[in-house]
Specification:
By secondary structure, this protein is an alpha+beta fold. It folds into two domains: 2-94, Ribosomal Protein L25, Chain P, CATH 2.40.240.10; 100-182, Beta Complex (RNA Polymerase Alpha Subunit, Chain A, domain 2), CATH 2.170.120.20. It is 20% helix and 33% strand. The chain contains five helices and 13 strands. The chain has a six-stranded mixed barrel. The longest helix is centred in the C-terminal third of the chain and has 20 residues, at 200-219. The termini are far apart.
């Protein structure tokens, strides 16, 4: 249980409250039970330290006020929208026998002793907090789930979690799931395309062009394989046809 020093405050206006905050104090109020609401202030440095720790809103705090000790439970914290510093806190006075509804965090232990997780299984957390109804003097700090021996496919239900005496979940009538040990998710990488596929068409085009060029060259050669000059080609045709008309001079 954490302990804090608190002072009684008599602030009545917003200006007085702002002056209090400028001095490094956080205004707060204590309510609940048969006593009247009590205005107090606390050190912002100490409050920020407790808030940064886990489970601040579910841990009972002992406030020392002018020599008197009061057990309280933080219920709501207001923050500055620019600095994110706490600027006001509501505390619920702990009264013996009173009932309260509160969310308690779940902690998982012995991950390394779970055969399912060792084989690549995944812990799928369905509920990180569970809402409970309990007496103010018997609030658990956390709910512990032991993963020792759990295999893939195991469902962890609320019935498998040990709760303190007279502490019950607000959800009644069904054994709801808190977490499961699920099978590993396998990601299949897409196949890589074969190299050189994109250049296949251009290669064919080159070969076709080369073939066409070779055909033209062959058509311009003699039967013996010699190339025929362009000027001699007409004379060669005349020799083959003696009846052709002579060229006019």
């Amino acid at each position: 249980m954490n302990s804090l020093e608190a002072s009684i405050r008599n602030t009545k206006t917003k200006g007085e409250i702002n002056t209090l905050r400028q001095k490094g104090e956080v205004p707060a109020i204590i309510y609940g039970g048969t006593e009247e609401n009590q205005k107090v202030s606390l050190s912002k440095k100490q409050i920020k330290y407790l808030i940064e720790q886990e489970n601040f809103l579910s841990n009972i705090i002992s406030l020392n006020i002018d020599g008197q000790t009061i057990k309280v439970l933080p219920r709501e914290v207001s923050y500055d929208i620019l600095t994110d510093d706490p600027i006001h806190i509501d505390f619920l006075r702990i009264v013996k026998g009173a009932k309260i509804i509160i969310e308690i965090p779940v902690r998982f232990i012995n991950n390394e002793k779970s055969p399912g997780l060792k084989r690549g299984g995944v812990l799928n957390i369905v509920r990180r907090k569970i809402e409970l109804k309990c007496a103010t003097e018997n609030i658990p700090n956390e709910l512990v789930v032991d993963l020792d021996g759990l295999e893939i496919g195991t469902s962890i239900k609320i019935s498998s979690i040990s709760l303190p005496e007279n502490v019950k979940p607000t959800i009644q009538g069904r054994d709801f799931v808190v977490a499961t040990v699920a099978a590993p998710t396998v990601f299949k990488e897409p196949e890589k395309p074969a190299e050189g596929v994109e250049g296949a068409d251009s290669t064919e085009g080159t070969d076709a062009a080369e073939g066409a060029e070779g055909t033209s060259a062959e058509s311009a050669t003699k039967e013996g394989g010699e190339k025929v000059p362009e000027g001699e080609k007409g004379k060669e045709d005349q020799k083959k046809d003696p009846k052709a008309a002579p060229e006019k001079k």
